[in-house]
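Researcher: Please translate sequence to structure tokens.
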Amino acid sequence: MTIDLIERRVIACRACPELAAYIAAVGREKKRAFRDQTYWAKPVPGFGDPAARVLLVGLAPGAHGSNRTGRMFTGDASGDWLFRALHAAGFASQAVAIDRHDGLVLHDAFITAAGRCAPPKNKPTPAQLANCFPFLVDEIGTLAHIRVIVTLGKIADDTIHAYVKAHGRYRTPRKPFAHGRENLIALPSHGDVTVIASYHPSRQNTNTGVLTKPMLDAIFTRARELTTPITA
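Model: Translation complete:
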């Protein structure tokens, strides 16, 4: 299994006919601001550094963000917050993500999501998430150097902990979801991995002050600390 092969399988997936129909319709109807653009309108694969030690897991593509641009967290307000924070922490080559051809490169980080198709009202069903789950399993298995997993939102956090239940174990009892909360897990193929929970950088959270820039910066500062070797 390779990241390129997983990417091709994600793009070709039609396991949820209702989502395939929805994202195609969004791509035809478009948003007024993007009426001159061609929407991706397919499942969106993960992307980033194949040697990444930090894995980010989001919820699902946005209807007029990733479903338009074809790259996770690209082209919407959530991505504006995320890539600014990643750039500040040295995980991204630039702070702005416009489209999948904008030259942005991730360093030591890989971004994926619990769901791969934009769901209506940003609410994937349990069955839809279950259909996407094997892609996440394959990605984690292929990304051999993971030491930190950042979960962006509770659905992403629950998805990762479902993975732990099936494929790993907890070093200490699992702590419930809260921003900045950490769980130390052990995966047979990776060893010890720290899961850091974060509120999702959605407008609902950023516009209301539930998530602030310092709060999001702190998540990736911590991820950097956990992946920086301690020297004498």
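Researcher: Any highlights?
Model: The mean pLDDT is 97.
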